[in-house]
Specification:
Blueprint: E1 3-8, H1 16-30, E2 34-39, H2 45-49, H3 56-67, E3 70-78, E4 81-82, H4 84-90, E5 102-109, H5 117-128, E6 133-134, E7 138-141, E8 145-148, E9 151-154, H6 156-174, E10 180-181, E11 184-185
Domain NADPH-dependent FMN reductase-like: 3-143
Protein name: NADPH-dependent FMN reductase
Enzyme class: oxidoreductase
Length: 186
């Protein structure tokens, strides 16, 4: 069974981005994937900002990345880029921390003017971390996500394309050798 790690890079507890990450986690779990959701905002700030990879929570989070076959990066868009919180976490990973993995870059934002932030800011980092395959990235407008009583709904203009991207990612996982750790398949 493929293991997927959803990494949410929003600093907000009420983040639509985090809820989209959870939505994707549920969809992938329903497809038979083992899914874990890492909310970077829950990591200890001192350890994260000082890059203390020996801190237990940071070591556990980086071990989860190493153990995953696929990574979903969910980030809000701030100042035409992905979140600094996500950047702080990605900076902790080894040079080829995504080697052998399928990666789905996903961003949310208030305007389509930020859609290229994924391709010009996040995708190069994904590739520099050695991702085996980065599937088509996806940008979701905040206004297309509604949360009522902890239930999320996605506007049809984004819901269909989001489902397609999740399906592409799911298919990409089938081509990834399971549990790639330090260049070896376990």
């Amino acid at each position: 069974m493929s293991r997927v790690l959803v990494i949410s890079g929003s600093p907000s507890r009420t983040s639509k981005t985090e809820r989209i990450g959870e939505h994707i986690a549920q969809r992938l779990s329903g497809a038979g994937r083992s899914v874990e959701h890492l909310r970077v905002r829950t990591l200890p700030a001192d350890a994260l900002l000082s890059a203390d990879t020996r801190a237990p929570a940071i070591a556990e989070a980086t071990a989860a990345v190493a153990a995953a076959d696929g990574i979903v990066l969910a980030t809000p868009t701030y100042k035409a880029s992905y979140s600094g919180l996500l950047k702080s976490f990605l900076d902790l990973l080894p040079q080829f921390g995504f080697a052998g993995k399928a990666v789905l870059p996903l961003a949310t934002g208030g305007t389509v003017a930020h859609v290229l932030a994924i391709d010009y800011a996040l995708r190069p980092v994904v590739h520099s971390l050695g991702a085996r395959h980065a599937v088509q990235s996806f940008f979701l407008l905040d206004k297309h996500v509604t949360v009522v009583d902890d239930e999320i709904s996605v506007h049809p203009d984004s819901g269909g394309p989001l489902a397609d991207v999740i399906e592409q990612f799911d298919k990409a996982l089938d081509g990834v050798p399971h549990t790639t750790v330090l260049g070896r398949t376990a």
